[in-house]
Each structure stands twice: as C-alpha cells, then as structure tokens.
Amino acid sequence: MAVFDTSFHQTMELQTYLYALPYEWYTKYKIRKYGAHGTSHKYVANRLSEILNKKDCKVIVCHIGNGGSITAIKNGKCVDTSMGFTPNAGIIMGTRCGDIDVSIIPYMIKQTGINYQDIDNVINKQSGLLGISGVSSDSRDIENGIAEGNERCLLAQQMFIQKIVDYIAKYYVLLEGVDAIAFTAGIGENSINVRKGVIDKLKVLGIKLDEEKNNIRGQEQLITTKDSSIPCYIIPTDEEVMIARDTYHLIEM
Ligand code: AMP
Fold it and tell me: Which residues does the annotation mark as catalytic?
C-alpha cells in the first residue's frame, strides 16, 4: 500500500495549480502545484467536520511543523494549498524559505557564482527560521532565544507568524468565509506563542483567542472564545489512522 501525500490536493482546479510559466512546461515537464501533507490535512479536515457536526463545511488547516503548509478545504476537498511543485513554497519553515521572488536565484548565481546544487541547499536547508535567526530551525530554540532577548529570533518568529496569517487571510476570501480553522503538527499543536501570534493578527475577522484554553500543548482543544466569529482548534494530526482508513476503504471496494 502506498499513500501519496499529494493525492488529497488533486481536487485543485487547473487555474489554481498552474504557474504562469510557458504552458509547455506544464504539458512537457509536469510543472504545476502538487502540495504536500495531504494525509494530515485530510485527517484534520475530517475531524473538524465531526466536531462541527457538519458534513459540508469550509475549513482552513494549518499544518505547522518543521515543514509547514496551509490548506483551504471545502466540503472535504482541497481547494488550494500553500506548498507547490515542491514543499519549498508557501509559509516560512524550519530551514526552507517558502515563497520568495524567484529572480533572487539567478541574481545570486550571477553575484556569487554559486552553483544550482548549492543554491538548492541554501533555500531548502539554510533558510527559514534558521536562516533569519542564525540560531536554529527548531521553534523551541527560537522561543528560548526570544526569552533571552535575541532580536533575530524575534524577527524570525514575527515573519513566520505573518506568513501564516497571510495564507489564512487569502483562503478566507477564497472560501468566502470559513466554519473553522485548525492548528496541527509540531508547532501548531505545541507552540502557545505562535498560535497566539496568528490568532491575535486575525482579530479584524472577529476571531478571538481564549488565552486560558490556548495554554495547552498536544491536545485537541477549542482555543477561541464563545463569541469568536470563527472557532479555532488544536487538532493533533494522525496520518497513520488516515492511511489505515484509506487502505480499509480500498480493500472494501
Ligand atoms: P514536526 O515537523 O511536526 O515534528 O514539528 C517539529 C517542530 O515542532 C519543531 O520546530 C519543534 O520545535 C516544534 N515543537 C515541538 N514541540 C514544541 C513545543 N513544546 N513548543 C514549541 N514548538 C514545539
């Protein structure tokens, strides 16, 4: 049994998964958005549907770990996701840069003579939280750095939070409103500060954090107030269960 972490994203429409590059790059080289973390996004979206007791719902799932992606899901199907042709697109990650102006790459090749393998290494292994902080790719180290007054750790976390907010805002408009937002994976489940930073920046949408409920790690929990316009949850992901369920459904068919 093989489960592709991209398969959940196959419901995206052509206009969403295509890049504005020569069309032949798509037909000949299959250059398009594929997304990743699909198994996790599917599990969390299913769980939200159960919690809301609503089969047809619009949700945004924030899978934020060392790698991270945000997905807009309508009626159980992926509408858009932040990762792209590779996982190095979308939000800032532990060591990946996420979205950048692609013309930086040829510019830096010209400036420094760096070769494509080395630049691939920089954008995937030396960027993100590590690249900005200069300290670590691990959000626990970043939070310790902030507590010690390290300004680059603070900058890294602020940039990290902003990018997540950018995608939530974009998907809120794309879905024309959402029924719920979920945080999952290592940082989403465990970082009280990142969740607070994100939700506080969403107050313009009427979303209100319940600080007491948010003060928890690794457990399923509603973390917004009763009068919040949109409920936000921590949903610990369970990719293994999703794989087992998919396998069971295949055998049943
Ligand atoms: P993952 O790739 O899902 O295993 O997530 C790894 C990320 O989760 C790392 O950046 C960890 O620092 C982060 N993480 C795990 N536990 C905590 C915690 N208690 N507080 C903040 N971040 C955490």
Answer: 5
pLDDT at residue 236 is higher than 90: yes
Distance (Å) from CA 189 to ligand 1 centroid: 8
Query: What was the pLDDT predicted at 1?
Result: 84
139 CB under 6 A from ligand 1?
yes
Q: Is 150 in the pocket of ligand 1 (CB under 6 A)?
A: no
Tell me the C-alpha distance between 130 and 49, whole Å.
Answer: 35
Query: How large is the average pLDDT for residues 122-138?
Result: 98
Beta strands in the chain (DSSP E): 58-64, 68-74, 77-81, 180-184, 221-222, 232-234
Task: Output the residue whose Cα is nearest ligand 1's atom 9.
Answer: 138
Tens of pLDDT, residues 69-122: 999 999 999 999 999 999 999 999 999 999 999 999 999 999 999 999 999 999
Sheet holding 180-184, edge to edge: 77-81, 68-74, 58-64, 180-184, 232-234, 221-222
Q: 129 alpha carbon to ligand 1 midpoint, in Å?
A: 12
pLDDT beyond 90 at 253? no
Q: Tell me the C-alpha distance between 118 and 111, whole Å.
A: 14
Ligand 1: centre distance to CA 56 (Å)? 31
Which domains, from first to last, does the chain contain? 7-97+165-252 (3.30.420.40)
| Cα 231 from Cα 12, distance rounded (Å) | 25
Any residues with CB less than 8 A from the CB of 251 and at least 6 apart, and which? none
Q: Could you tell me if the CB of 87 is within 6 A of ligand 1?
A: no
